[in-house]
Design brief:
By secondary structure, the chain is α+β, with helices and mostly antiparallel strands. The protein has helices spanning 3-11, 23-30, 93-108, 133-142, 195-200, 203-206, 256-267, 290-303, 318-323, 347-363, and strands at residues 35-38, 46-52, 57-64, 82-84, 87-89, 115-122, 149-152, 164-166, 168-169, 172-180, 184-185, 223-230, 237-238, 241-248, 272-280, 283-284, 308-310, 327-330, 344-346. Helix 1 crosses helix 3 (93-108), helix 3 crosses helix 10 and helix 8 (290-303) packs across helix 10.
Length: 369
């Protein structure tokens, strides 16, 4: 099936997390010649496709078939792909059925590869991501079948197709601080302990402060306050408790202990509690890794663009490969309309993405000059 026909077929599945809406059944039929393995956990569907060509490296292409709900404001049905000139409009065009279509056809049409090609797809990336890629990799680890290299086809480009790949991702640490005070009448402040007044004194030293200096791969880890609330929405009662929520997108130089020590430095004289939750750990692939150099070369060959190595943005399933030490990159189409109404990409980008992946497969065993 030609790449755009395949792409539009994938877009027609109403695969809102965690439902694949039958997409995996279609993909199984499309990928003739690949070993098929279904690893379904509760409502989550996972599909592993494998083709062994030789004894060389195991290269995995990974992604998700699920999409976020469409929401309002669409000019057309979000699950009926609509052409407007060179653009295709539908939910999932950028995030990330373009990437899935591209690597499905690139691997299906591979004639020779010195190693093993595999595809890992899940319906659980846009949700909790607890029963998807992370569980499949755990199984592959136990079976001694983890890939050596991985390409996650998330949309990574910024303004021009080919201008950025991701070689890592920041982690994410969420925190909740509760400052305990004593509620009282606003007319008698001396009889109460107002937690707002106490916390206000330390905010200038915490809000937006960098916890490290970053490095060649990561921006500094910043303490970002996301919510502060206290009181009963009346003017004559001082609150008995204040809750402050924050997030730190952390580099490899900052961890939960760093954050805990930072908070304690400013709250140690106060009665407070702290709850921290790390939802993603940071990872980075070496700039000189084979997968980084080869995909950069493939992008340049197809587009003429010198790609940038980036770790910006939120989290993705690439983090799970990183936790297992798999050299991983992310590359896909421009990401300017992800999760938005009238999400769109272009025919040219999808075709060029297939060409990049095809070139990568064909040249992966060769040395870059």
């Amino acid at each position: 099936m030609e790449i755009i026909a395949l792409f539009e077929k994938l877009l027609s599945f109403k695969s809102i997390t965690p439902d694949d809406d039958g997409a995996f059944d279609f993909i199984e039929r499309h990928m003739a010649g690949f070993e098929v393995r279904r690893i379904d956990i509760d409502e989550v569907k996972n599909l592993l496709l494998v083709k062994r060509f030789g004894s060389g490296a195991h290269l995995c292409f990974a992604g998700h078939i699920d999409v976020v709900p469409p929401g309002d404001g669409w000019s057309s049905d979000p699950f009926e792909p609509t052409r407007v000139g060179d653009e295709i409009i539908a939910r999932g065009t950028q995030d990330m059925k373009s990437g899935v279509a591209a690597f499905l056809n690139a691997t299906l049409n591979a004639k020779d590869f010195n190693g093993t090609l595999s595809i890992l797809l899940t319906s659980d990336e846009e949700g909790d991501a607890k029963n998807g890629t992370v569980k499949v990799l755990e199984i592959l680890k136990n079976e001694n079948f983890l890939p050596d290299f991985a390409v996650v086809a998330e949309p990574t480009c910024e303004t021009v197709f080919g201008d950025a790949i991701k070689i890592g991702r920041r982690g994410s640490i969420n925190g909740v601080i509760e400052k305990i005070g004593i509620q009282g009448h606003a007319a008698y402040p001396e009889k109460s302990k107002n937690p707002i007044h106490k916390v206000a004194g330390v905010l200038p030293y915490m809000a937006g402060v960098n916890l490290d200096n970053g490095d060649d791969s990561f921006a500094p880890s910043q303490f970002v306050i996301t919510d502060i609330r206290a009181g009963m929405e009346v003017t004559n009662v001082t609150p008995g408790k204040l809750k402050m929520m924050f997030n730190v997108r952390n580099s490899t130089k900052t961890d939960k202990k760093t954050v805990e020590e930072f908070v304690h430095k400013y709250f140690k004289e106060m009665d407070y509690t702290l709850v921290l939750n790390q939802t993603a750990k940071p990872f980075v692939t070496n700039h000189n890794s084979k997968i980084v150099t080869h995909i950069a070369e493939s992008i340049k060959e197809v587009t003429g663009v010198e790609t940038k190595l980036s770790t910006a943005g939120g989290t993705s399933d690439a983090r799970f490969f990183g936790e297992y030490g798999v050299d991983t990159v992310e590359f896909g189409v421009i990401n300017d309309t992800i999760h938005a109404p009238n999400e769109r990409t272009t025919v040219k980008e999808v075709k060029d993405l297939e060409k990049v992946f095809t070139h990568l497969i064909e040249n992966f065993s060769k040395e870059i000059k």
